[in-house]
């Protein structure tokens, strides 16, 4: 069985994003970029499934600029077998990404598609669900535990009320949550081996997918500065403060 793992190049989670002076977007100049943390968890889970003998091949795929090759090389260094980059300098929205992933999945025929539940740059949390709808495949989102047994997958998923367990018939789509695993660090020998692993470059046109943005960003701004709180000594003082503020 093949496992397809989409990964995204985003601003490193340790870096505080800066808004462009004209408010048109986030400034990416000279900013450290890395693999989306949720996708890193998906790569780790795919590699663990392969190590357990549940899969024969792990394929990493990314949609983005040429520099996204670095992100794919990280996935290869972690243990993925080969990679595909669909190169596009435009901002590709979740629906277009889902259409491109469907086209790749139709060609590769993976038994499982593992991807992060969301990207930390846009927090859309849409691609996995859209892909499942486009492919008419069962889906398990926000997975904190994944078990494969023959032609089915048991997914423990985190929901507002606690945990929910669902059984999916393969092929299926699973999106990963933070508590699924702890991603490994790529060793130096594996980083060197990753340079020799196959990385194929494609374009959206190769798959017949239009990635023209359908959304327009009107303005990007820093979040408002939170005002400092104020301590009160008693409930009566709290009520008086609330009345003064006109909220009680």
What report would you give on this structure?
By secondary structure, the chain is of the alpha/beta class. It has one domain (2-220): HUPs (Rossmann fold, 3-Layer(aba) Sandwich), CATH 3.40.50.620. It is built from 6 helices and 13 strands. It has helices spanning 37-51, 68-78, 94-108, 127-135, 188-194, 235-245, and strands at residues 2-6, 9-11, 18-19, 26-27, 33-35, 57-64, 82-87, 112-116, 139-149, 152-159, 162-169, 172-176, 199-202. The strands form 3 sheets. A 9-stranded mixed beta sheet has the order 11-10-9-12-8-1-6-7-13, with helices on both faces. A two-stranded antiparallel sheet has the order 2-5. Helix 2 (68-78) crosses helix 5 (188-194). The protein is globular. The N and C termini lie far apart (61 Å). 34% of the residues are buried.
Task: Describe the structure using short key phrases.
248 residues, alpha/beta, Rossmann fold, nine-stranded mixed beta sheet, two-stranded antiparallel sheet, globular, ETF_b
List the helices and strands and how they pair.
Blueprint: E1 2-6, E2 9-11, E3 18-19, E4 26-27, E5 33-35, H1 37-51, E6 57-64, H2 68-78, E7 82-87, H3 94-108, E8 112-116, H4 127-135, E9 139-149, E10 152-159, E11 162-169, E12 172-176, H5 188-194, E13 199-202, H6 235-245
Parallel strand pairs: 1-6, 1-8, 6-7, 7-13, 8-12, 9-12
Antiparallel strand pairs: 2-5, 3-4, 9-10, 10-11
Helix pairs in contact: 2-5, 3-4
